[in-house]
Structures are given as structure tokens and as C-alpha cells.
Specification:
The complex is a heterodimer.
Chain A (H helix, E strand, L loop, with lengths): L5 E10 L5 H9 L14 H16 L9 E6 L5 H15 L4 H4 L11 H10 L6 E4 L5 H15 L4 E8 L3 H9 L23 E9 L2 H6 L4 E11 L12 H14 L8 E3 L6 H14 L5 E3 L2 H4 L6 H15 L1 E2 L21 E2 L4 E8 L3 E10 L5
Parallel strand pairs in A: 2-3, 2-4, 7-8, 7-11
Antiparallel strand pairs in A: 1-5, 1-6, 4-5, 6-12, 9-10, 11-12
Chain B lengths: L4 E9 L35 H13 L5 H6 L1 E5 L5 H13 L7 H4 L6 H10 L5 E5 L4 H14 L5 E11 L12 E11 L11 E10 L12 H13 L3 E7 L2 E9 L1
Parallel strand pairs in B: 2-3, 2-4
Antiparallel strand pairs in B: 1-5, 1-6, 4-5, 6-8, 7-8
Classes of the chains: A alpha/beta, B alpha+beta.
Chain lengths: 380, 258
């Protein structure tokens, strides 16, 4: 098990509505009157490129440190416009028209989400190992965990992890067909909730090991990734385990690795999609893990479900919670369905925070959990 | 111990549907029963043809692994376009109905991780599930990452491998290819103590990743024949290096006899 402290720095994030992590956090603390159910992208390819590049640009290491910097892209579908063009062309091809395919990507064809990894890695001159992780809506957290594993095992001294997804027409039609989209607004854990909202976002973060000599010079408080866990429900493709078995296992692994008791968690930033099965499953997990309930919050009522980006975007927001010592309210929650839980709603809570648990779950029964801890310069 | 990682068994299926692991007595194993949902207890909608083949092959690799060992087992797979078939079906259903009656069943399987998730459901695997993409190096990348996870002590056993749609002609070029066919490779990798009743076939000496500007223009499997030859060589007589580059990453595994 990796024991060396893994430091998370240079968090950045942007969505189709908000241009920076600070803007998202401010809107979370003081939510706007109305939140859209879908993002509107006139050109999904441009939207993908601009969101991901913007997030990465803000998290890049110094130029001298890029030569050995690894790069992990976490996404469910990547540049979905390029994928759609390929699918249309391939469907055309089955009817005997090959011309469309010949024009794809200057005649080179479509290389899947790998293509984005290569383009972004080359663009920002990241010359460490690079690859893509795709594990449904847990992709962002799993990408972060993989980066920590690489740094911990010495595969790279630092890794830039970027998570991004575009909730374009392909995705919107899919979730509409599953009847998972709210008809009004996304209200996680609310008795009146009726489904999720979708959002496009990208988030990035630099993961590195703490070097002893730098540690002494460090100023202020820093966020560390102290524990993590990943598990599978092995139950159903689209519905979570009603007993929350997978999520409970992932959280317990993360707590064990962080070497802390559940009682030491100050707040939990839940996945909180606003679908009834997910909300119920997460509530079961919280009841099982915590006897003394930490503050519970969620952000998808504001950002929408940003799919593969959500894990890292919300980890970035959790780092701001630690640094500003605020627990913003669950956007959209007015009347909790499970009133015995310690939900933070309608107004933010200001209280000392040292350790936050962030969880994510996804299609296929995937679950991931990370423990984030705030340390002073001499805290390790 | 850094080198305490072993491959217990492997199986591959080439684009013609031929299985490559006679050592396991593949010919004698029957087709597994239809997939069923542990959630509803009813028969599941049939999985994609790639998923169906993957399920059959995984059932061979996992046939005598006790349920308690599967509960902590991990799945590490590499793929470039593993969800291609469901992507096409979903896109067709969208276009034909102008987005009004898209197929929910196809949509829920349009993720690169779909087949891996189906395997966890089918075989009761409850450990970590990771799906990687790194161009032609995707399959080897999954192996290198599995080795790291085992070495770090996070897991002790993983169902590892690659699955993809490959072209009959030029592996990289989607333009002139006339057909795609599935290729699958699975192997069980782990610490020796993870499966005390099974004697390992291959020992992993080293696995590493590094930056490389070289490119192999193939899909995730990067030629089943390469893997099969490397495994056969390693399990019979000598140490060999399996190496592949994709999208700027060079994956390398050194393996040899136990």
C-alpha cells in the first residue's frame, strides 16, 4: 500500500455555465435562481476542446517539470462529436457509401478517446506516460486514484489528471430514453426530486509526491489524498446495489488506507445525482458507515451530472471546502426525504473541516471513494 | 517483493473466433448459460457480440475460481473502441427516430467499460474495475497497471486483458476496412498466494511505463499473435520482453518461466 503523502495542487475546473473553479464554488455557496437541465452547445467539438484545454492550462506544472510529467485523461466518451461523426459514417458505410468515412480526420480515421490523449499531451508538452481511464461516472475519481498510484509507485514524479465530458445530444437522448432526466430541476435527496440534470465540464489537478526539502518551505495549508478505494457492485448495469454493498466497500477501503475512523470524517461530498435509486443507495451507505453523522452535501443540483468529469470536479470543490472551511448546501434540496440525516441545505455551514470523503458511483455498478485531508506545512 | 507477480492462465480468441489456449482444454468446455440479472433474477437482454464472446472466454478462465476469491478480484482491461457495436446501434436508433425513441438498452452499454462491468455482474467480481485506453498499447497498459496494483498490495488477483474490434486489413485505418471482428485476450494475474491451488504458468519479472514518441498502428489487442507467442515462449523456456507504444506511452513487460 502506498504510504508516501500524495499532494494535490493546482486544482482547476470549468463548466458550460461557469468559467472557473472559484465561480462554481461561489455559485454553490449562493445558488442562482434557475439552473438549466441541459447545456447548450452549438458545436460540441469546440466545447470539448475549449473546456478540457482551459482546465488543463490552469493546472499545468512549470515548463521545466513537464518533461517527466505523466498525463491521465478521465472521460466516458471524450470528443463525442468526433465519435458521432464516425458512427454516422460507419452507419452510412453499411449502406454502401464510403465517402463520408474517407473525410474523417483528414483521412486518418477515428482513433477513439486515445486520440484526445495524444493531442492534449502533445499540445501541452507532457512527456511522461499518458493514457485514458474510462470507468463511467467514476472516471474522474479513478483517474485521480491512478495518478496517485503512479506517483506513489515512482512511475512518474508528477501526473496531471484531467477529467472531462460533454453532455451533448447523444448523451441527452440516452438519458431521456432512460427517463432519468428531471422535468423541473435537479433536487438530490429531496422528497419531490424527479431525476437528474446534465452538465458539461472539465477539471484538472496536479498530483505529486511531497518532497522533504520542499515540505519545509511550504506555506499555508495543502490538500492531500490520504486514502482511496474502488469496488464493483456486481449487481446491475444501470441500477445501484440497493444494499450499497459496493459503495460501503469502497469507503471502508479508503478509510483504512487513510488510517482513520469514520468518526474523523467532517463532511461527505456525495455523488447525489437526484435519481431515486442513487439517493436511496447513498443514504443506506451513510447510515451503515457513520454512527456519528458528518455533514452531507452534493453539488449536481448546480452543475448537473457532468458524467466522467464529476468525480474530479467535485474533488476540486471539496478541496475548496477544506481551504475555506465552508460546507455549501445541496443545491435544490428543500424538503429532505430522509430527515434523520445531517444534510446541509438552504444555507451553508461554517465549521472547522480537516477531512472530507468524496464518493462517486456509475453505470455497471462501479464505486470509488477518496479521503482528502488538509494539513499545515508541518502537518505531515 | 517486487517480482512476486504471476500469470496463472490465459486465453485468447482471434478475429476468426479461434481460441488459443489448448493447455486449458478449451475444446471440452461447454458454452455458459445465458446471462441473467442478479438484480431482478430474470434473464438479461443479450449482451453485444463482443460482450458475449468475452463472457464465454472469461467463463473458461474463471471456471474453477471459488466465489470467495472472485469477490476480491479486480478487472483491468484495455480497449480502444470496445463499445463500438452498441454505439452504432444507439446512434442508429437516435437518427431513425429523430432522437425521440432512442434505445435505452443500447445507451446503457455505450461506455468503454460496459463489457468489463458485464463480466463483474456475470461472475460476481466485486473488486476494483479499471478500463484503459492508450491506442495500440491499451492491452499491455492494462497489464502494467494490474502489476503495479498487485505490487502495491491493493489487490492480489486480477482478471486482465484486452478486447477490441479489429480490422481485417489495415488495423489502424477505418476508411478502407470492409469488416470488423472482435479479438479478445484474458489472463489471470496475481500473487502466488492468491490462488494456492493453481500452479502459475509465467512469472512477471518487470512491468513499466514510459514516454515514447513511437507509434504502433494497431488496436488495443495489438495483434493477438504477439501476446500468444510471448506467453507460449515465457511459459516454456525463456525470458522475453513484450513491448508496445501508443499515443506517447511505451508499455513494457518482461516475463519468463516460473
Amino acid at each position: 500500500m502506498t504510504k508516501s503523502p500524495i499532494q494535490l495542487t493546482s486544482f482547476s475546473a470549468c463548466t458550460s455555465e461557469y468559467s472557473s473553479l472559484e465561480d462554481i464554488f461561489e455559485a454553490w455557496v449562493t445558488p442562482p435562481a434557475k439552473v438549466p437541465l441541459f447545456p447548450d452547445h452549438p458545436d460540441e467539438s469546440i466545447a470539448w476542446k475549449s473546456l478540457v484545454e482551459k482546465a488543463m492550462e490552469a493546472a499545468l506544472p512549470l515548463e521545466k517539470d513537464r518533461d517527466d510529467c505523466g498525463f491521465i485523461l478521465a472521460t466516458t466518451k471524450g470528443d463525442i462529436a468526433a465519435l458521432e461523426a464516425t458512427l454516422d459514417a460507419e452507419n452510412e458505410k453499411t449502406t454502401g457509401n464510403n465517402d463520408v468515412l474517407r473525410n474523417l480526420d483528414g483521412g486518418r480515421g477515428y482513433g477513439g478517446i486515445s486520440q484526445s490523449v495524444q493531442a492534449l499531451g502533445d499540445r501541452f508538452q507532457l512527456r511522461g506516460p499518458r493514457f485514458c481511464v474510462s470507468t463511467a461516472c467514476t472516471s474522474g475519481l479513478v483517474g485521480l486514484i491512478e495518478a496517485a498510484m503512479m506517483v506513489g509507485a515512482g512511475d512518474a514524479p508528477r501526473v496531471l489528471v484531467c477529467a472531462g465530458d460533454i453532455a451533448g445530444r447523444f448523451v441527452r437522448d440516452g438519458f431521456l430514453s432512460l427517463k432519468a432526466i428531471s422535468s423541473t430541476t435537479c433536487r438530490p435527496f429531496d422528497v419531490h426530486r424527479d431525476g437528474l440534470a446534465l452538465g458539461s465540464a472539465a477539471a484538472a489537478c496536479l498530483v505529486q509526491r511531497v518532497e522533504k526539502k520542499k515540505e519545509k518551505k511550504k506555506e499555508g495549508a495543502t490538500v492531500f489524498l490520504t486514502g482511496w478505494g474502488i469496488s464493483s457492485d456486481a449487481v446491475h448495469m444501470t441500477a445501484p446495489d440497493r444494499q450499497a454493498g459496493g459503495l460501503i466497500r469502497a469507503i471502508r477501503q479508503a478509510l483504512a488506507m487513510a488510517d482513520i475512523d469514520a468518526g474523523q470524517i467532517d463532511a461527505v461530498l456525495l455523488h447525489g445525482t437526484g435519481t431515486s435509486y442513487n439517493d436511496a443507495m447513498e443514504t443506506v451507505a451513510m447510515r451503515e458507515i457513520f454512527s456519528r453523522r458528518p455533514l452531507l452535501t452534493a453539488v449536481k443540483g448546480l452543475t448537473g451530472h457532468t458524467l466522467g468529469a464529476s468525480g474530479l470536479l467535485e474533488t476540486a470543490l471539496a478541496s475548496r471546502m477544506l481551504q475555506r472551511q465552508i460546507v455549501p448546501p445541496i443545491t435544490g434540496l428543500r424538503t429532505p426525504e430522509y430527515p434523520d440525516m445531517s444534510w446541509v441545505y438552504t444555507i451553508p455551514r461554517y465549521q472547522p473541516l480537516k477531512t472530507i470523503l468524496k464518493t462517486a458511483s456509475g453505470f455497471g455498478g462501479m464505486n470509488a471513494a477518496v479521503v482528502l485531508t488538509l494539513h499545515d506545512a508541518d502537518g505531515l | 517483493m517486487k517480482d512476486d507477480v504471476f500469470i496463472f492462465r490465459w486465453i485468447a480468441q482471434d478475429s476468426r473466433g479461434n481460441n488459443k489456449a489448448a493447455e486449458m482444454g478449451v475444446e471440452t468446455v461447454k458454452k455458459p448459460p445465458p446471462a441473467f440479472s442478479h438484480y431482478t433474477g430474470r434473464a438479461e437482454r443479450s449482451v453485444s457480440s463482443l460482450g458475449e464472446r468475452a463472457r464465454q472466454l472469461a467463463s473458461l478462465v474463471l471456471q474453477d475460481i471459488p466465489a470467495k476469491d472472485r469477490q476480491t478480484m479486480a478487472v483491468f482491461l484495455g480497449t480502444m473502441r470496445g463499445a463500438r457495436e452498441e454505439d452504432l446501434i444507439f446512434q442508429r436508433s437516435r437518427k431513425n427516430s429523430n432522437g425521440k425513441y432512442s434505445s435505452p438498452a443500447a445507451f446503457s452499454r455505450t461506455l468503454p467499460s460496459t463489457v468489463a462491468a458485464e463480466l463483474t455482474i456475470e461472475f460476481g467480481i466485486r473488486g476494483p474495475l479499471l478500463v484503459f485506453t492508450a491506442g495500440a498499447a491499451s492491452g499491455l497498459l492494462a497489464s502494467v497497471r494490474a502489476i503495479r496494483w498487485i505490487q502495491s498490495g491493493n489487490i492480489s488477483l486480477a482478471l486482465t486483458g484486452a478486447l477490441d474490434w479489429s480490422h481485417a486489413d489495415d488495423c489502424h485505418n477505418t476508411i478502407y476496412s470492409t469488416s470488423y471482428s472482435p479479438q479478445i485476450l484474458f489472463y489471470l494475474i496475481g500473487r502466488r498466494s492468491a490462488l494456492p491451488g493453481i500452479y502459475p504458468m509465467i512469472q512477471i519479472k518487470q512491468g513499466q511505463l514510459k514516454y515514447s514518441s513511437a507509434q504502433n498502428k494497431q488496436r488495443a489487442i495489438a495483434s493477438i499473435t504477439h501476446f500468444v507467442n510471448a506467453f507460449r515462449l515465457a511459459s516454456t523456456q525463456r525470458v522475453n520482453i513484450q513491448e508496445k507504444s501508443g499515443i506517447g506511452t511505451l508499455c513494457q513487460i518482461i516475463m519468463g518461466p516460473v
